[in-house]
Amino acid sequence: MSFNTIIYEQDGGIGIVTLNRPRSMNALNNELIRELGAVLDEIAGDGTISAVIIRGHEKVFAAGADISELSRIQTPAQAHQFVTRVHLLFDRIENLPKPVIAAVSGLALGGGCELSMACDIRIAAENAVFGQPEIKIGVIPGGGGTQRLPRLVGLGRAKELLFTGDPVDAQEAWRIGLVSRVVPTASLGDEARKMATGFTARPALALQMIKMAVNTGINMDLRSALSHEARCFEWLFSTLDQKEGMRAFMEKRRPEFKGI
């Protein structure tokens, strides 16, 4: 499958998606949204892919939604159509049954920041900048920024970032919990691959269950979430990987997981 706005590569069991609209600073337009959705469908159905990396270029991850397209929206109904497409895409990333790493270098603003927050883990290059500047053009984040940001950094800090629209650098993003780690810009690709390669060595169904338990449980009360976790734990005892993992531990050898 060929794409105009993204590049898709496979490196072993890793699917690498590169946002590729350099002249538009990787702004999220309708074509890029469609193509990201299509490649996620491909990845979801590919049993050889165990982890995913989404990245941009050195100076920009994604600088937000494409304002040239947004400026043509004239009615709330048209705005609803656009934001629904974005929500469906970001929900697709959030619920993809494989770990998704955002490797962020340069600007991750507006929809670009929201895209990174839909991923499971964010690794930031030292030159990364995160922000939700929508208030400065008279709107609010529409791709989950008002909801995912507070869940990641806390209510008060999120409100400050949303109310001011001011960006934060990589170190501040790490300090407040928006990213998992900060690495030298030149090392970002290697660090993201190293993490993803570690995931490919883990039992795929157990990874899927962890992701589902966390994503679902965070929206439940604690008692319901613990019950959900227990059901996920119990189900894994029907898998061959569980039996192989425990057998390998007892035999003091490295397990050979098959994803079944």
Automatic annotation (TrEMBL):
UniProt record, GO biological process: fatty acid beta-oxidation
Secretion signal, residue range per the UniProt entry: none
UniProt xrefs under InterPro entries: ClpP/crotonase-like_dom_sf, Enoyl-CoA_hyd/isom_CS, Enoyl-CoA_hydra/iso, Enoyl-CoA_hydra_C
Keywords from the named record: Lyase
Pfam families, A to Z: ECH_1
GO molecular function per UniProt: hydro-lyase activity
Family the entry assigns: Belongs to the enoyl-CoA hydratase/isomerase family.
This protein's name: Crotonase
Organism: Desulfonema ishimotonii
Origin organism lineage: Bacteria, Pseudomonadati, Thermodesulfobacteriota, Desulfobacteria, Desulfobacterales
